[in-house]
Specification:
The chain contains 14 helices and 27 strands. It is of the alpha+beta class and 461 residues long. Strands 5, 6, 7, 8, 9, 10, 11, 14 and 19 form a nine-stranded antiparallel sheet that branches. A five-stranded mixed sheet has the order 21-22-23-27-24, sandwiched between helices. A four-stranded mixed sheet has the order 1-2-3-20, sandwiched between helices. α4 (83-90) packs across α9 and α9 runs antiparallel to α10 (349-360). The longest helix has 15 residues, at 305-319. The protein is globular. The N and C termini lie far apart (58 Å). Bound molecules: flavin mononucleotide (FMN). Flavin mononucleotide binds at residues 135, 150, 152-155, 167-169, 172-174, 205, 207, 293, 300, 303-304, 307.
Length: 461
């Protein structure tokens, strides 16, 4: 049996039943489905929820699957503490795809006039969203020059039975590929997979070189080759074990308004002039399960976390061998802030580490570098280091007019800071102590006295 969404659901049911809930009552995909998740979030709970009965569709919906680190860890068969390094290791274990003649995703094939994406669950997540969105579509493309496959998750607006809107940021490989097709005046064929094993979602978040096939990276993350089957109406292979695949094409030179949409920043992302997708086929399992990602909420951030954390870890390790840990905290949307701890061997290394962190991924806006006595998973320790080890005139530096992401609500345009645009000011804080100048020591009780202390002994009468 190949790994797929169903095998993962089974694993969740068996190993963490308290985090997997089934709801039988009918829910409306417009707000109500997400309202249930939001209510859980109020009390710091993030269960995966399987909705058996969703208004307006025959398909059940699973949402919030990757809303907790423990389930990311389950997807990669590791612990939540070891996640980043596990992803970093597996992403190099490239496994060529397994081409198959048939797959469950072909049980139902609808093309031409039979195509109707409005029969899929029409999930509306946030109050100001521009309508129903597919938040969990993994778009599959082929580079026209090399034939290398690329995957990514992009917000996809359902516009009509056979028309979708899509937004891919200027930085993305998808945008790079689309620019090639558009310059040649050619349509860009694509496939969108919805619902698969979470490792496939994590593979779509790989941030390594363009030349590497994300299908092969995904094989490494899955621990087995990804099974692919020929598309019906496009010259692309599609994941054979997905729940649903939408096939289509983006015509060159066409733009329509798309958005607004609740984003990973937890703000509303602007409505923008974006490409459209003409849908040419929809294929799915007979009893397909629709996979939704709760956008603008923790699942959105966590799904995108590991690809970035892992590549930053590797890039920092390459230039700073004494790097200890790299963390993209929630407070920085798991995308724009990076905390790095290093064993500082010589003066200047803190600044070099900060530069490497900012350069390691275009999304990095703020880098904070601390010594290795600070636990970067504990944000108050990071803030304590900033408070006690930093003088802003010496330890903070600013790089104006760099690209971060246009979705940052404070991003600005080259023509003026008051105009919204692509640009951002990157900055870094070197919160490490000097090496060659004596620095005051931490005040602490001897560790061997308290670390393994048995409090029960003292509380017994
Ligand atoms: C839930 C989710 C939604 C996302 N939506 C978008 C989006 O709308 N546009 C975008 O450019 N990136 C989006 N991303 C980030 C991309 O999927 C990610 O950067 C990916 O690595 C891009 O792949 P590429 O560089 O191969 O194109 C999203 C990520 C997640 C986890």
């Amino acid at each position: 049996m190949s790994k797929d969404l169903r095998s993962f659901i089974q694993q969740m049911e068996q190993t963490m039943p308290q985090d997997f809930l089934k709801i039988k009552k009918e829910v409306n995909p417009r707000f109500e489905l997400c309202a249930v998740l939001r209510k859980f979030q109020e009390s710091n709970q993030f269960p995966a929820v399987f909705y058996e009965n969703v208004k307006g569709t025959k398909m059940p919906v699973i949402a919030n699957t990757l809303a907790a680190r423990e389930r990311l860890a389950l997807a990669l068969e590791t612990t939540s503490h070891a996640l980043t390094k596990e992803y970093a290791g597996r992403q190099h274990d490239l496994k060529p795809v397994m081409r198959v003649d048939h797959g469950p995703v072909k049980e139902i094939v609808l093309s031409g006039g039979a195509v109707d994406v409005t029969s899929l669950p029409q999930v509306v997540h946030c109050e100001k969203d521009g309508g129903p969105y597919i938040s969990s579509g993994i778009m599959i493309l082929k580079d026209p020059d090399s034939g290398v496959y690329n995957m990514g998750i992009y917000r996809i607006q359902i516009k009509s039975k056979n028309k979708l809107g899509i937004y891919f940021g200027a930085y993305s490989h998808a945008a790079h590929i689309f620019r090639k097709f558009e310059e040649r005046g050619e349509v860009m064929e694509l496939a969108i997979a919805i619902g698969h094993h979470p490792a496939v979602y994590l593979g779509a978040q790989y941030r390594g070189p363009f030349e590497i096939s994300e299908l092969e990276v995904t094989g490494g993350l899955l621990g087995e080759p990804l099974r692919m089957v020929k598309g019906e109406t496009v010259d692309l292979d599609v994941p054979a074990d997905a729940e649903i695949v939408i096939e289509g094409r983006i015509p060159p030179g066409v733009r329509e308004m798309e958005g607004p949409f609740g984003e990973y920043t937890w703000y509303m992302g602007d409505a923008l002039e974006n490409p459209i997708i003409e849908v040419t086929a929809v294929t799915h399992r007979r009893d397909a399960i629709y996979y939704d990602i709760f956008s603008a909420h923790p699942e959105h951030n966590l799904t995108g976390l590991l690809g970035r954390e892992a590549i930053l870890w590797e890039r920092l390790k390459a230039s700073i061998p004494t790097v200890k840990q790299v963390v993209l905290p929630f407070s920085g949307t798991c995308r724009h802030t990076v905390y790095v701890s290093i064993k500082k061997e010589y003066d200047g290394l803190g600044k070099n580490a900060a530069l490497a962190a900012l350069a390691g991924d275009p999304f990095m806006k703020m880098a904070v570098v601390v010594d290795d006595d600070i636990d970067v998973l504990n944000e108050s320790e990071v803030l304590w280091a900033i408070c006690t080890r930093v003088q802003a005139d010496r330890d903070v530096f600013i790089i104006p007019d760099a690209y971060v992401c246009e979705l940052d609500p404070s991003a600005y345009d080259i023509k003026g800071k008051e105009i919204r645009g692509y640009l951002n000011c990157k900055w870094a804080i070197d919160a490490t102590k000097p090496v060659e100048i004596p620095f005051q020591e931490r005040a602490e009780v001897p560790e061997d006295m308290w670390k393994n202390l048995d409090l029960k002994y003292y509380l017994e009468s």
